[in-house]
């Protein structure tokens, strides 16, 4: 049976990629009781290539950053789906954490992170309204422009 969240993904025309495996000494997801933690996901497209590399305020536009945040959030959802063998166990999205590779003078981190937040609300509707932190960093793995982590509450 397909969850209403999965039906919404299809309606939105979103392709969930096969989630990437961790490349270091960590796990992609960890469930503790009714909480599912998703490790930071890079802004990988379904073809495995980064949507944007470099830094906002330097060589990455805000528009590209928004698309990168959206791609990272899609990877968060893909990891959740794989961990839970579907999305029907998700009660709500509790929190997103966003890491934006940015120059010291860049100040539109929140606007970039809206790419991830908006995607989550598109999929999960009211259950997708979440708390959030958005942090500017000097660099990310593989020179990715954006990384997003998440916390879900389960039924």
Automatic annotation (TrEMBL):
Q: Which InterPro entries match?
A: Endoribo_LPSP/chorism_mut-like (IPR013813), RutC-like_sf (IPR035959)
Q: Which residues form the Endoribonuclease L-PSP/chorismate mutase-like domain?
A: 6-148
> Which Pfam families does the entry mention?
YjgF_endoribonc
The coiled-coil segments of this chain are none
**PANTHER family according to UniProt:** ENDORIBONUCLEASE L-PSP_CHORISMATE MUTASE-LIKE DOMAIN-CONTAINING PROTEIN, ENDORIBONUCLEASE-RELATED
By what name is this protein known? Endoribonuclease L-PSP/chorismate mutase-like domain-containing protein
What organism is the protein native to? Answer: Rhizobium altiplani
């Amino acid at each position: 049976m397909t969850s209403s969240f999965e039906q919404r993904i299809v309606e939105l025309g979103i392709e969930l990629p096969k989630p990437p495996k961790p490349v270091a000494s960590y796990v992609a997801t960890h469930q503790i009781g009714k909480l599912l933690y998703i490790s930071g996901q890079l802004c990988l497209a379904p073809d495995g290539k980064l949507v944007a590399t470099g830094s906002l305020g330097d060589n990455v536009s805000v528009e590209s950053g928004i698309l990168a945040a959206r791609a990272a959030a899609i990877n968060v959802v893909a990891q959740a789906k794989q961990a839970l063998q579907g999305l029907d166990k998700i009660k709500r999205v509790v929190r997103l954490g966003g890491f934006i590779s940015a120059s010291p003078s860049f100040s539109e981190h929140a606007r970039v992170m809206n790419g991830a937040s908006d995607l989550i609300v598109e999929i999960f509707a009211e259950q997708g309204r979440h708390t959030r932190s958005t942090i500017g960093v000097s660099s990310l793995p593989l020179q990715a422009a954006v990384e997003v982590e998440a916390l879900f509450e389960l039924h």
